[in-house]
C-alpha cells in the first residue's frame, strides 16, 4: 500500500483533541508532539562512539493533557484504548502493566532523578501515526513526547541534550533495550529540511541542510516486525564491546582498519566481522554526510549500498524481507530515479530507506511494492516523507 502523508499532522492533532474532550469532558491544557526518525546511514554504531545521520520524519507521537489536581497520571493511548494506565506520581515508578506505558514510567523516573518530584497529577490522551515495530523508533518518540509533556506541566525546559539522555535511560531501564543515543537525539534535535549528524562520542548534534530538494525520501515498511528486546540487539552490542577490548582501545573512533587487521588473529571470525562493520560504517557515515550536503548523490548511493551489505553480511541484522525490498530499489537503479537504498534502524525486519528523484518517486514506490509483494506475499506499507522539526508543544 502506498500511503500519502497529506495533512497527517493536522489530522492526528484533530483526532487527539476530539478524543480527549470525549473522554475527559474538557479541552486539553497542553498539547505536545515528538517525531519519529529515519536513519540515512550510520547503523548500529551510535553505541560505538560513531557518527549517525538520521532525520526526524513527518510521523509523530502526540500527547494532550490537563492537570487533574491528584497524585496520579491517568493515561489513555488511542492505539490501545482497552489498556488505560494509571501511574502514581508520589512513589518511585516501576516496570508494570500495561507494558506500553513503561517507557513513560521511565521518563517520569528520569524527572524524579533530577529532583522534579512528585510531579503534578494530570490526565492525558496519547495518539500516534508512527508504525510500530517498523524501525522508525516509535518508542523514542513516545519517550520524548512524554518528557516534553512533563516539561509543559512543570513550566520548565530542561537542556535538550539532557532531555534526550533522560529518554535513553528510560528505554534502558524500563524497556530493557540497551540502545544508543540516535533515536532520542533525532526526536529532540530534528530540524525541518535538515538531517542531523550526531557525533555519538561528544554527544553533539549538528543540523545539516538536506541540500537537494529534487530528492525524495521513501520509507518502505516490510511489515515484518522486529523485537529489539529479544536479545539480538544486546547481543550485537556485546560483540562490539568484546572486539573493542581485544583491540585494547577506549573508543572505536581511535580504531583504524590497520589496527583491526592486526588484531584479527586474536578475534573469532564473527566478532571480527562485527568490528569490521563498525570501522567501515563510521567512515561511510562521515563521507555520506559530506556528499549529501554537497548534493553528490552518486557517492551517497554507493555508500548506502555498502552499508546495507555490511549490515547484512558482517553485522547480520538484516533479514530476507529487508534484502528483497532493498534489491527491488537497487534493480530500478539510477536510470529509474533511485539514488540509494538500504535497511534502516535496528533491523531484524522493519523498514528500508530509499533516496529517489522526486519526479520518479510515485512510480518507484509502486514498483517496489509490487516486487516485494510478489516475492514475499506480504503487502508492504510505503510512503514518502520529509525532514521535520524535533519535539515541540503546539498551540490549541
Ligand atoms: C535502534 C536503537 C538505536 C540504534 C539503532 C541501530 O534504533 O534504538 O540506538 O542503535 O537501533 O542503528
From TrEMBL:
GO terms for biological process: galactose metabolic process. It holds the Pfam family GHMP_kinases_N. Residues 18-67 form the Galactokinase N-terminal domain. It is an enzyme of class 2 (transferase). The keyword Electron transport does not apply. Residues 291-372 form the GHMP kinase C-terminal domain. Residues 103-191 form the GHMP kinase N-terminal domain. InterPro entries: Galactokinase (IPR000705), GalKase_N (IPR019539), GHMP_kinase_C_dom (IPR013750), GHMP_kinase_C_sf (IPR036554), GHMP_kinase_N_dom (IPR006204), GHMP_knse_ATP-bd_CS (IPR006203), Mevalonate/galactokinase (IPR006206), Ribosomal_Su5_D2-typ_SF (IPR020568). One of its GO terms (cellular component) is cytosol. This is Galactokinase. The keyword Oxidoreductase does not apply. Its EC number is 2.7.1.6. Belongs to the GHMP kinase family. GalK subfamily. One of its GO terms (molecular function) is metal ion binding. Keywords: ATP-binding, Carbohydrate metabolism, Cytoplasm, Galactose metabolism, Kinase, Magnesium, Metal-binding, Nucleotide-binding, Transferase.
Amino acid at each position: 500500500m502506498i500511503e500519502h502523508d497529506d495533512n497527517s499532522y493536522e489530522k492526528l492533532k484533530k483526532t487527539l483533541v476530539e478524543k480527549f474532550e470525549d473522554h475527559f469532558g474538557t479541552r486539553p491544557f497542553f498539547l505536545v508532539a515528538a517525531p519519529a526518525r529515519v536513519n540515512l546511514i550510520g547503523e548500529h554504531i551510535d553505541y560505538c562512539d560513531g557518527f549517525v545521520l538520521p532525520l526526524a520524519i513527518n510521523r509523530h507521537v502526540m500527547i494532550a493533557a490537563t492537570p487533574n489536581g491528584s497524585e496520579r497520571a491517568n493515561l489513555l493511548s488511542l492505539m490501545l484504548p482497552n489498556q488505560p494506565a494509571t501511574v502514581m506520581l508520589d512513589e518511585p515508578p516501576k516496570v508494570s502493566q500495561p507494558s506500553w506505558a513503561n517507557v513513560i514510567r521511565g521518563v517520569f523516573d528520569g524527572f524524579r532523578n533530577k529532583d522534579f518530584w512528585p510531579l503534578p497529577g494530570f490526565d492525558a490522551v496519547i495518539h500516534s501515526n508512527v508504525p510500530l515495530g517498523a524501525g522508525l523508533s516509535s518508542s523514542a518518540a513516545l519517550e520524548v513526547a512524554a518528557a516534553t509533556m512533563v516539561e509543559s506541566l512543570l513550566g520548565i525546559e530542561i537542556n535538550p541534550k539532557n532531555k534526550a539522555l533522560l529518554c535513553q535511560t528510560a528505554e534502558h531501564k524500563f524497556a530493557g533495550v540497551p540502545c544508543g543515543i540516535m533515536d532520542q537525539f533525532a526526536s529532540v534535535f530534528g530540524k525541518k529540511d535538515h538531517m542531523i549528524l550526531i557525533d555519538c562520542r561528544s554527544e553533539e548534534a549538528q543540523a545539516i541542510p538536506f541540500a537537494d530538494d529534487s530528492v525524495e525520501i521513501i520509507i518502505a515498511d516490510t511489515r515484518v516486525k522486529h523485537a529489539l528486546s529479544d536479545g539480538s540487539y544486546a547481543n550485537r552490542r556485546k560483540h562490539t564491546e568484546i572486539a573493542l577490548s581485544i583491540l585494547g582501545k577506549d573508543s572505536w573512533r581511535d580504531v583504524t582498519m590497520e589496527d583491526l587487521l592486526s588484531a584479527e588473529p586474536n578475534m573469532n571470525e564473527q566478532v571480527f566481522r562485527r568490528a569490521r562493520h563498525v570501522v567501515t560504517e563510521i567512515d561511510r557515515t562521515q563521507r555520506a554526510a559530506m556528499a549529501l550536503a554537497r548534493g553528490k548523490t552518486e557517492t551517497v548511493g554507493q555508500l548506502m549500498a555498502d552499508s546495507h551489505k555490511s549490515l547484512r553480511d558482517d553485522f547480520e541484522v538484516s533479514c530476507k524481507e529487508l534484502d528483497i525490498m532493498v534489491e527491488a530499489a537497487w534493480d530500478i537503479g539510477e536510470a529509474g530515479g533511485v539514488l540509494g537504498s538500504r535497511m534502516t534502524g535496528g533491523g531484524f525486519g522493519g523498514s528500508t530507506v530509499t533516496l529517489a528523484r522526486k519526479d520518479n518517486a510515485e512510480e518507484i514506490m509502486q514498483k517496489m511494492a509490487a516486487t516485494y509483494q510478489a516475492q514475499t506475499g506480504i503487502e508492504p506499507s510505503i510512503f514518502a516523507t520529509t525532514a521535520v522539526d524535533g519535539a515541540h508543544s503546539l498551540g490549541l
